Structures
1.
Amino acid sequence: MQENAPYRPERDVVTTIRDDGSRRFLFPADAKGRFLTGRRIVALVLIGIYALLPWIKVGGYPAIFLDVADRRFHLMGRTLAIQDLWLMFFLISGVGFSLFFITALFGRIWCGWACPHTVFLDHVYRRIERWIDGDAIERRSLAKAPLGAAKFARRALKHTLYILFSAAIAHMFLSYFVSIPAVWAMMGDAPTKNWGTFVFIAVATGIVYFNFAWFREQLCIVICPYGRLQSVLTDDHTLTIGYDTARGEPRGKPESAGVGDCVDCDRCVKVCPTGIDIRQGLQLECVGCAACIDACDDVMQKLGRRPGLVRYDSLAGFAGRAKRWVRPRTILYGVLLAIGASVAAWNIGGIRPAILGVTRMVGAPYYVDGGSVRNQFLVRIVNKRSEPAEFKLRMLDLPPGVEARGIEAPFKIAPLGEETRPLIVQEPRSLYTVPFSFQVEVSDSSGSFRIARSMGFMGPDPAADTAAHGSATDHP
Amino acid sequence: MSADPNHLQNDQDVRAHAYDGIQEYNHRLPNWWLFTLYGAIIFWIAYWSYYEWFQAAPEGAARVELAMQRIEAAKLASNASSKLDDKGLWEMSRNAVIVDAGKQVFQANCIPCHLASLRGKHENPTAIGPDLTDQIWIHGGHPTEIYSTVTTGVPLKGMPTWGPVLGPKRISEAVAYVLSYHKEGEPIIPDAASAPAN
């Protein structure tokens, strides 16, 4: 159902939800201009990056390949094992701090320019719709028209294209997790052969299709938490899209006297993809797409007036005050981001391609056997790399006279394989006086890394009777 | 409400309550949002019927039990070739592939004490473990006794408990390797000097 009179947005209700709770579908008009051109270039570059990352190989693996099946994560030539998953903390907190910082400075620049939802909606799906159904007026009348053969043909074509693009996006997404050749091989197989993956792709395609064909701005307005968060992250000096009330009001016809620059043409409202009137001020629904700027600049240019009645500026700027970039909020968010990034870099730099564990073997803490005191350890090494590697063990800080057995020969470990080696440390009974500590060190044959673990050697109190503890011998 | 043109002028939709001076409108939720609620209710009825009313699926404990038995079955299947009796272990000790696998296990885990020659204290009196090639057995010389000694260890003397470290397959391979130095039916001499610990 469409109203006959154009709907006037109000700040106290969501335009896309009618009083009875039903959806008011929007038919945003075209707005051409420098910001649309800029956003389109950014969007095409981003889609190119999303699509190409799984194809570009860095260090033998795709630039980004989250190999869930083998529990390995290849990121720009660096391979992380499942044991390094704790670094996800830095990814999540890093995204959080980056959003804080960027939002405080530039408002919803992410939403309008880089969010995949906007990128695919504005630059793929709305393009398809525009191509098949025509401009806003044509789309609105087509929506009102009864379903005849011509409308059915158009709808069928549009939704077929939507589904094809949704399937392509779902496959693109999958290729980050199972690699391009595996996706290609699965696409050639019958669905029953990879039932789980097929259902995943079918459901993902369905969700993507539903989102871009029907749900659209509802995601940004109702579901996305970032839209809500921004109201506590921005302040009077944050860059936002707004309307210069001082210059525009009072609105009036171009020829009239005593009126501002706004001619009340409603172009800014007609082009808005979330159905707001930017002249009512900064609102939660605004995704910062800048369509209203392009629309208004176009009108101002035709009237021979300065552009920028609707523009990127801060609330302070619109109020005629100076805009400040450096303020307590941006300093705080910037410092938090810098601390998080440094700690993350430090930790990622400290990732070792192996794990070394040394434990005391089950049994007595020490054995007195013949003329020597003996401690037994179990050394466990995991090769976290994607290729087999040769490892060697070495003892450090062993006092003279102490002998270690079991770690002499280097050994190969398969990718993600695990090996254990017994380590027997012995000291002549006559030399032993007090417990001491030593280190076990693992390195690979090329010496590209070393990891050391400290262990303690213990024995009987020299003053005490040896028979009291663990003095079993094979041949007394 | 003020006469701000940005706000609705009729306040009939404003709820009576006010918190910190903030009032809220009584607007309807989006219908699609309500559908998610109704959908969740329908799902709950189906879920509750399936699990609680009809009890169509096994209970949690039964499912865990089933999963554990599957794991156990897979373990047994992977171990199917190694019959854990004296005869089976002797057979394994005559199979070159198994003996070679056992040699790898032995070299990785056993030679610090028993030496690469398996001769332990007989080769070098300062070695830790006893000779495994002679016919003197401290803890029993039948193949299953050797297997049991390796699996549970002899903690009092320092023989580690290898069961949880190596698992049954690698232990039986290592035992087969030791047995490859022996012949079935050869005498087993209990070690007179050292009483068995168990």
Note: Residues 149-178 of chain A form the longest helix (30 residues).
2.
Amino acid sequence: MTESQPLSAELPANFDLNIVQWVQLAGSPAFDYPIEYAFAVLSADRATGRLDLLTRWAPNAYCHFHRHICNTSALVIDGEQHVIETREFETVHKIRQPGFSGPTPDGETHMERAGPTGCTMLFAMQADDGRMFDVLSKDGEVLATATFDDFVENRIGRSKAA
Amino acid sequence: MNQPQRLRAELPEGFDMHKVEWRQFTGDDAFDYPIDYALGVISADAAAGRIDFLARWAPHAYCHYHRHLGHTATLLVDGEQHLVETHGHESVHKIRQAGFRGTTPDGETHMEFAGPHGLTILFSVYAEDGRLFELLDRRDQVIAVATIDDLVQNRLGKAA
């Protein structure tokens, strides 16, 4: 677990989303839910372990089931974010609209998908050890761990989550 | 706000649900959602700010939109509980099954309704000043305050 620090996810002033170079990810027969999303590194600072990551989901599509393993702050930029956490005896479904900003606790595990018009988010993350997400099977087994270097060096989608 | 106490909602051993004296509540034209639930006091000590009571919802029915006051421990005895909290840019829908245990913080505000087979919950509450809930309208204005004395003396539904 990473020590909590106050993080704020904010787009730079006048940032143009239309010039973002997205890395696209899609599902496979190994996953029984529709996976279609893309990410783009907005900024990265290896010295502090801080990574700001844009993520964009297709309408009603999921990203991979995952566990956050670093300090994370999220901002919904466009569309609708659905986060579904399942625990013994309880399911929690969070629906967030543009303008929402808030922290995601280290260790939180959830399914995450877009609403009917898709979803675009900014995640500000800080990881002392560079580990940012565990990608999980439905049984909670770790399939892959996405790190700071994976995002910065564009290795995700080749050897990791997809 | 009240200081939290260590609480655990627990039905007394051998408790017979059939002997509960339920007080029934239903909605009226002032509410645009279907209200049909009942309350039954298990034990109460108003001087200590403590009450344990059961609440039972009809299938798919709501209780009044409300804010919890005091510190509350819950045990979901039967059925399915749905809680919907709305804040700013976020709504949170919690769906809980029989066996769920948890706490409800002082000040939590939510809509609460039953799943398709109804719902029975035990609430164990510590409210230092005796105030248990605020019943709210859709604009979060307080319509009524329910106290330990209201439940014990069966005044709810007459004043609210």
Note: Chain A has one domain: 20-152.
